[in-house]
Write a structure and sequence with these properties.
- The chain has 142 residues and is α+β, with helices and mostly antiparallel strands.
- The protein has one domain.
- Helices cover 15% and strands 19% of the residues.
- The protein contains 2 helices and 6 strands, in the order H-E-H-E-E-E-E-E.
- The strands form 2 sheets. Strands 3-4-5-6 form a 4-stranded antiparallel β-sheet, covered by helices on one side.
- The radius of gyration is 15 Å and the shape is globular.
- The protein starts with 30 loop residues before the first helix and ends in a 7-residue tail after the last strand.
Length: 142
């Protein structure tokens, strides 16, 4: 058996969470499901779970909204992926993937009802599910 088959591996399609809507290439984050997703991912013990999060604003879209990236940075566990499932295409690349948040300083928290944040070494990612506004105060690679 090849060595790459013996170690831990991740297959995008096997990380389906159909209830929360973050799976395969048809998944998307919406304001109406934002608080539910964030509360579930911020729950104790979720830092031990792999997160496979879809990046697009809508099925078939290559638009990556700030809200999606903020949700990912706030909720991500040590082993997490954001992308377009498979097959990804070069045309889906977005400059927002170049943000440099640094290292996480804490786990996600709900600051007030529907407002989630996480402190990183280079700033604090924040997402308001109420107003659908994201704060990403990080510099990008140039």
């Amino acid at each position: 058996m090849p060595s790459y088959l013996r170690g831990p591996a991740h297959l995008w399609a096997l990380h389906a969470d159909q209830e929360l809507g973050f799976y395969s290439e048809y998944a998307q984050i919406t304001q109406s499901r934002c608080a539910e997703f964030m509360r579930a991912r911020c729950a104790a013990g979720m830092q031990n779970q792999t997160l496979m999060m879809h990046a697009a604003a809508a099925p078939g879209s290559s638009v990556v909204p700030n809200q999606t990236v903020a949700a990912f940075l706030i909720a991500r566990s040590p082993v997490s992926f954001i992308g377009f499932g498979w097959p990804s295409r070069d045309s889906q690349w977005d400059e927002i993937f170049l943000l440099q948040a640094g290292e996480p300083m804490e786990v996600c928290r709900e600051e007030s009802p529907g407002v989630f944040s996480r402190r990183w070494t280079r700033g604090t990612a924040k997402l308001s599910c109420n107003t659908w506004e994201a704060t990403l105060p990080f510099e990008a690679l140039s």
